[in-house]
Queue: 2 jobs
Job 1
Amino acid sequence: MKQRILKIVCIGAGYVGGPTMAVIADRCPDISVTVIDLNAARIAAWNSDALPVYEPGLAEIVRRTRGRNLRFISQTEGAAAIAQADAVFISVNTPTKTQGEGAGKASDLSYVESCARYIAEHATGPTIVIEKSTMPVRAADTIKRILSSGKNGGSFHVLSNPEFLAEGTAIRDLEKPDRVLIGGENPTAIEALAAVYRHWVPEAAILRTGLWSAELSKLAANAFLAQRVSSINAISALCEATEADVDEVAGVCGADTRIGPKFLKASIGFGGSCFKKDLLSLIYLCEFYQLSGPAAYWQGVLDINEWQKRRIAAMAAEHAKLGGGVVAILGLAFKKNTNDFRESPAIDICNQLLASGVRLRLQDERVDAKDFAAHIVDQRKVGVEFFADVAPAADGADALLILTEWDCYATIDWPALFSSCGKNPAIFDGRAIIDRRAAISAGFKVYSVGKG
Ligand SMILES: NC(=O)c1ccc[n+]([C@@H]2O[C@H](COP(=O)([O-])OP(=O)(O)OC[C@H]3O[C@@H](n4cnc5c(N)ncnc54)[C@H](O)[C@@H]3O)[C@@H](O)[C@H]2O)c1
């Protein structure tokens, strides 16, 4: 096997593949990086000025690397690139299965498996195949099996190199990762990949483990993060009932170095494409190995998240229906600084509001509201309007429901907005980011999550 990786191919030009490969190309000018995807429109967007992924700092990196040592090409042009690659990253989606064994919980590995078949068909080897997608533990067995059935005799080593970036801070996370994790069985392959990261990541932050530990560590890390959100959200409801303040409680708990301050912000709940599906995958694995106690524990983390969304939506609906039944939704993205609304809490909350007969006025800083509305499961377009700015969205609204912590919502001029709202307007601050005093003195009723 080659000791040095000089040619990389990444299959999957999504929220992980695109930014990760852009940073590798930026930090490793000696390595040529090719990103391929089935989705031709996505590849075209990566080759344009309107990138398909919004992340602070990403556009600048793509601008200086694209055409130098970074290129985006369609799957049909990918075979030659795979044949020459020293390493191929698999960075495709691993959603929850919707049918068959484990439907509703287990990860759907069909996209990963089709990548493995594509690599087996075109690689001339020796090739390092790297799981960048989040996989259930022992998924590498399946990949190895598919690769070894290839007809052209390429030789392969499989590594697990799960990605820990968070959307919204992807570039910072990639440039200064807390850790890079490489799991594998072949020391030469592990060190070849470590050498790529050593271009900019300190050696001490490059962790090596066995394959199965690496696969499981990614699921465990996301489960721990989701668990913290559910823990503080469970406390937020108790704060509201007892007139305690969840930010004060979080500050005190987080000052304990054993707990730490991060990920203790009460909210309408976690969203995004990963936490729920990775928790479900973990629950499925526990059940598969007949570990019912651990399965129930992680299910509880998901249950609190659903409960938190439901109770806040119910409060907003109840208030809106006292007036004209109009709710302005401020924020559709699952968090700030991203245009991603996959599994956004806003989806379930909007569905619940529509089901309770409320009309919605949607606004977000980066998400196209019409695009979002197409994903509202309810599909009842009646009673949904879209706005580019906050003021027109709030016009005539009985309740303003803040669902994303975009900075611009924290600095809204409440007195200026008050007169255009409905008769008895309330703000439901699902992120606890606004200046409550300013909003109350402007005339609004104010509910902030976790504030008594
Ligand atoms: N989004 C995140 O914040 C994040 C963070 C860490 C890990 N992950 C994991 O990374 C993986 C990818 O996530 P994402 O958010 O980038 O997904 P995504 O849906 O944004 O991108 C996946 C891309 O893969 C392409 N694709 C699917 N099958 C293909 C195939 N056979 N050949 C070529 N292209 C194919 C799709 O067209 C799509 O563009 C998932 O396993 C996810 O759990 C995601």
Job 2
Amino acid sequence: MFSLLRRLKLSYSLYNVFQRRKLAHNLPLYQRLGLSKRYFSPISSRDFANLPPTAGLPPVPTLAERLARCAAFKDLPVASQASLLAFEDNGFAVLSGFFGTEAVDAINQELTRLVASQQIALRYRNKFMFAFRQSVRIREAGEGHLRTLIAALLGHEATLFQSINFLMGSEQRTHSDSIHMSTFPLGGMAAAWVALEDITPHNGPLHYYPGSHKLPYYLNADYANEGTTWLTGDKEYTEYETTIARKIVEAGIEKQVFLARKGDVFIWHANLMHGGEPHHDKAQTRKSMVFHYFSRAHICYHEITQRPALMG
Ligand SMILES: O=C(O)CCC(=O)C(=O)O
């Protein structure tokens, strides 16, 4: 019964009726693309099936031109610049030592303070969600040069949508963020993962599949999770994960593990397959933080739940 209620589109649409300010971002695009949607309407990839893949997007300069115009890019070491310039080929970029020790220590202290004062608590087993809404310091880390660089990678202005802090490894199975934070046209999001301490093979490093962003975007239709007019899909999330595991084997892409040093940043593309390795040594922490950004030029929503994304 509860699971049926959770799947009922009407119930969250009713909730969203009261969220106009946070949902209005999709309206100009709905209008431009001729989609008859209200700000609170359910939305999923099925709604875009008859539209050209880049419908509604303005033309953008090349990645090299966009980065060359970005002040934050000019200040970076050559290796980080090269990594960003290769983003469209690889689906990721590594910015070694992007945050200094003092900045990382301050973020860790901030998280300790927020937890101690119960301003944030664990959700979904091991995640501290949206700490940036409670902490100027954490917000600044995501809003500063990182957001500018992400905007240059996306080719559009970017909004910091979500932060997640981890004290232990996520141990998340491989996925593409586009099933959770989805856009039309595809590809209008990116994430920046920050190592808040040195990461070893024993404390659950991030893993990723180079070039996997060029695979198709696997969405609800790819694991029979489209649902009906009134209900979202009824598939367990593990079915999505199993589909992705199979697709990666079929594609023959080799997994890489990111053994980050404190302060390193790993940026991933909307469709880069990634996840968290097992955290073997539970005596060690795995402090990290990830910022998820949406493009402001795209329709932003959540494919699994078929909800428009609440911004801000
Ligand atoms: O930090 C990790 O281990 C993975 C995080 C992740 O997959 C995500 O935030 O999308």
